[in-house]
Amino acid sequence: MTGKNPTTDSYSTHPTYPEGMVTVIDHPLVQHKLTLLRNQETGSKKFRELVKELAIFEGYEATRHLQLEPITVQTPICETVAHTLKGRKVAIVPILRAGLGMVEGILELIPAARVGHVGLYRDPATHHPVEYYCKLPEDIDAREVLIVDPMLATGGSASAAIEFLKAEGVASERIRLLVILAAPEGIQAVVETDPKVHIYTCAIDERLNEHAYIIPGLGDAGDRIFGTK
Q1: CA angle in degrees (0–180, nearest 5) for 91-43-104
Q2: Which of 45, 111, 142, 160 has its CA 20 to 30 A from that of 124?
Q3: 122: number of Cβ within 10 Å
Q4: Which residues are catalytic?
Q5: What pLDDT is attached to residue 3?
Q6: Domain edges within the chain
């Protein structure tokens, strides 16, 4: 799988972001699944499955930086030197509630990861995030952290989650933000909050509308995941 950097590839209509800090995952299977996700005829069951599958693709790409160390193992044929993960462990932090839809996919890749939760809702008048819950692993400052949320719209919730983690001692370089869709406004907000946080997305859409929804987007991800309105 290859990632596309919008600072150097065909995203010239979008703002310029720090080199290498925004990765668009352009794998053909990702784009196919994203099209199904956008379709308003896709029901909640299929929608949840697609979100989980896309989270797996993103988790794969977002963990390329993890370090390895050699170990000796005995295969059925002979002894050999292989590699295993070393260094810091991983924490997944979904932004409630839609972020919950991505957790299972990441856990399939990293079963030993700890899961924290950040509860934020968007004020309908101001579109600003309002915190109502935050629970993180005690050793969060010693982990690589993947923030997950399907939509990066205004960037308010993602920026708030980043600030929560930094307040708990997590270095910016160890925070990665995984979203399925991003608006240019949301990316810009996160970059302004902390340009060292790497963002992974399956697509950068056109813009936000007057209600701060992504255009063309896919609607309200939380409602479509959980079958609510």
Answers
A1: 15
A2: 45
A3: 15
A4: 122, 126, 220, 223
A5: 57
A6: 3-11+19-226
